[in-house]
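This section describes the prediction task in plain terms. A model, or a person checking by hand, is given the sequence of a single protein chain and must write out its three-dimensional structure as a string of tokens. No templates, partner chains or ligands are provided. The sample shown here is typical of the held-out split.
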Amino acid sequence: MTKQIVIAEQHRIAAVFSEDQIQELVVATGSHQVSDIYLGIVENVLPGIDAAFVNIGDPERNGFMHVTDLGPLRLKRSAGAITELLTPQQKVLVQVMKEPTGSKGPRLTGNITLPGRYLVLMPYGRGVNLSRRIKSEAERNRLRALAILVKPAGMGLLVRTEAEGQTEEAIMEDLEVLQKQWESVQLEGGTSRAPALLNRDDDFIQRVLRDMFSGDVNRIVVDSQNGIKRVKQQLMSWNGGKLPAGVLI
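The expected answer:
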């Protein structure tokens, strides 16, 4: 079965094809993209729909956050009503979970996640979770034990499918990068004037490969020579300095 990734970096669009069917599509062209992290300001709180509108810097549309997505803002207090949890002009750390559509602003969450190649760091999460696609019980036990050992205190970790068969060193390096990323977000959040963009996946090729490349991909199509070079560099960095066998770029 042929599975390929097509990346049109110039237009910031990418797709995964299995045979001739599109399996996944990524479009990163808007001013607010999925996974963007902002320091926002609560504009108004609507108890009738248990939601708040948050200013993240768009003069036309505010972001929308439901009480179920408040994350740490909700965990810290016993109150349930959104009016007891958020107040107008309050600063909040939020992440885009759904891009704006039509007249609607982006959907926001307080449950921040930072995805890496092998792990997803959840700064406000709890415990350790493993991808269900890791089937081997021995491998699940190995990865769970490692994740419990290296998990930063007070945070959560999700072990991605791509961690299967990887060395402890590679997984720990991935975690180190994510922790530095989170430290940078916190530092930016403490020194920036709200509303402000604190974190974005700027390297489109790196983001697409991180989220879409797996062992069953056998063809990658890119729209520039520079793009081809960067795809090769990224894959080699994950594969001990060698290109994965059987992948045509």
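For orientation: The two ends are 17 Å apart (CA to CA).
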